[in-house]
C-alpha cells in the first residue's frame, strides 16, 4: 500500500472538476486534483522514489513498489514553455516525500490565461485500486490524498 500525499497546499477538487477532458475523464489514470493557493510555492514529491520524468509543468515520481505518480502543475501550462517554473530536482534523482521538485507561481499561471488546477494521477492504476481519495476540502502540502493498493 502506497500513501500518496499532496504536492501542494490548496483545495482538493477531484478529477471531474478539472478543466481538461483528458484529466477529468481519468484517461491518464485515476487520482484527484488540487486547486492551489495563489502564491509562489514549491510542488513537492508525493511519494519517496525516483524522478523518472521532469518538465517545468509536470513530473513523475516512481516509488519502490513501481507506482508512478504524475503531478501536473496547471492545465495547458506546457504552452508557457517553462516560463515561471523553476526545476529544483533532476530526472533520475532520488527524492523523499515532501522534497521540493518544482517552484512555480499559480497566480502567474492564471494571469497568463491558464488554469493552475493541478491533477495528481496514479499512472497505470485502476480506480478500484485507490482508497481514501480526497476530492474536496482544504488540503495542506504533505497531507494524504489517496492510498494505492
CATH C-level category: Mainly Beta
Number of strands: 14
* The CATH architecture: Distorted Sandwich
The low-confidence parts are none
**Largest sheet report:** 8 strands, antiparallel
The side-by-side strand order for the widest beta sheet comes to 9-5-6-7-11-3-2-13
The CATH topology is what? Glucose Permease (Domain IIA)
Number of structurally distinct domains: 1
Number of helices: 2
Structure description:
- The chain is mainly β and about 150 residues long.
- The chain has one domain: Glucose Permease (Domain IIA) (Distorted Sandwich), CATH 2.70.70.
- About 5% of the residues lie in helices and about 40% in strands.
- The protein has helices at about 20-25, 105-110, and strands spanning about 1-5, 10, 30-35, 40-45, 50-55, 60, 70, 85, 95, 100-105, 120-125, 130, 135-140, 145-149.
- The strands form three sheets. An eight-stranded antiparallel sheet has the order 9-5-6-7-11-3-2-13, with no helix packed on it. Strands 1-14-12 form a three-stranded antiparallel sheet, with no helix packed on it.
- It starts with a strand and ends with a strand.
- The relative contact order is 0.32.
- GO terms for molecular function: kinase activity.
- InterPro entries: Dup_hybrid_motif, PTS_EIIA_1_perm, PTS_EIIA_component.
- This is PTS glucose transporter subunit IIA.
Amino acid at each position: 500500500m502506497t500513501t500518496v500525499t499532496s504536492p501542494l497546499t490548496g483545495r482538493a477538487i477531484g478529477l471531474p472538476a478539472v478543466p481538461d477532458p483528458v484529466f477529468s475523464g481519468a484517461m491518464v489514470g485515476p487520482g484527484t486534483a488540487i486547486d492551489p493557493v495563489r502564491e509562489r510555492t514549491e510542488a513537492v514529491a508525493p511519494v519517496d522514489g525516483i524522478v523518472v520524468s521532469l518538465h517545468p509543468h509536470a513530473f513523475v515520481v516512481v516509488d519502490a513498489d513501481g507506482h508512478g505518480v504524475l503531478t501536473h502543475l496547471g492545465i495547458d501550462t506546457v504552452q508557457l514553455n517553462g516560463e515561471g517554473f523553476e526545476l529544483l530536482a533532476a530526472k533520475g534523482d532520488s527524492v523523499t516525500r515532501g522534497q521540493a521538485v518544482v517552484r512555480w507561481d499559480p497566480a502567474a499561471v492564471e494571469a497568463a490565461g491558464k488554469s493552475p488546477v493541478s491533477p495528481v494521477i496514479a499512472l497505470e492504476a485502476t480506480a478500484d485500486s485507490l482508497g481514501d481519495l480526497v476530492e474536496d476540502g482544504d488540503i495542506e502540502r504533505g497531507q494524504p490524498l489517496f492510498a494505492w493498493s
